[in-house]
Amino acid sequence: MIKLTEMTVGQTNVPKYKLNNGREMPAIALGTYLGHDKSGMVRSVNKQLRDVVMQAIDVGYRHFDTAEIYGTEEELGEGVRRKMEEGAVRREELFITDKLWNTHHKREQVVPSLRESLCKMGLSYIDLFLMHWPMGLHLRDWFPRERQEQTLDGICTRVLVVREIFFTCTRNTDVLQQVLMALRFRLQTAITSEDYTHSDVDFMETWLGLEDAVRLGLARNIGVSNFNKQQLERILREGSIRPAALQIEVHPQIIQTELVQLAQRHQLVVMGYSPFGSLVTRYGIKFPGPTIDDPTLVAIARRHHKTTPQVVLRWLVDRNVVPVTKTVNPSRLKENIDIFDFELSAREIEIINKFDEKTRYTLPSFWQTHAYYPFEKVDNPSADPFIKH
């Protein structure tokens, strides 16, 4: 991978990586996952996420990461559209990464699901579409198939009657088309229920759906997330369109050297989520591992006149891994992106590598009996948070 250019926004110079189809990805992303609690996904309150996205654009972020399951697509889209309307940024300067959820793994479900995401964001395409996990999960029908078809046909006929009204309300016919097609998909999924039992849909079938999205111009690049070495090798071997990126958990406690090197040998850009590892609390819990005041990290930070979180983010960058950061704190936004004016030495990188314990903070062991589960199994899997017990 080659850093081709630098984006200069204010005082921030952000390198970009060349993807294997010639397009470019900014070397740091702002993630929009807000967490998970006993009630489910944490949601933005009072447009907080929208405002954070707008602040992030002001300080230099151009790469944003979301997913269908996060429930943040709408506010992300609202934030970037507002900044585009202000003239602060153009769509072609932004890089939006989105992810397909597990209940839409059949080939015929992939494109409609993406259209719905585009409808939520008010965009006509995304820059990178990832398969969130290799495992498919079931949707359960609420009504018999015959009743579903009657219901859909009746409602969608009414939608077509008011189509001309929609045309008078927007000049972007691409977005309008996403709205109409996404509406049908939403109507269909509205009469089904996600029961989250395991589906036997092969992830290569899902990959064909992602390839369809590229051919339709809805996604500029496609890739995978949370795949292991063998699963990634199969995508590379059997797919018609090569993946552009791999997103995995990477931080000092799980450095993923073998998987990162495999992906980079095949010209995939690696994106690393949860980059801070044990430096931050998770679920209100402080986990074992290096802390923000760890003496080793503090010594490196002092040499470079940086903070320990900045050192950890730079450690990813110096390994050619794109950090997917997450914060709603304006000062942290600035701190996290201020990492492109220094480099770690090979010795410093090796020192940080020694924290590796292969510790995962994203370990959905409740799915470990699935045929395509990508991680090591544990003796006492956790309860499935997606199923009401």
From TrEMBL:
Transmembrane segments: none annotated. Residues 28-356 form the NADP-dependent oxidoreductase domain. GO terms for molecular function: oxidoreductase activity. It holds the Pfam family Aldo_ket_red. Coiled coil: none annotated. InterPro entries: AKR (IPR020471), Aldo/ket_reductase_CS (IPR018170), NAD(P)_OxRdtase_dom_sf (IPR036812), NADP_OxRdtase_dom (IPR023210). This is 3-dehydroecdysone 3beta-reductase. It comes from Danaus plexippus plexippus. The lineage of its organism: Eukaryota, Metazoa, Ecdysozoa, Arthropoda, Hexapoda.
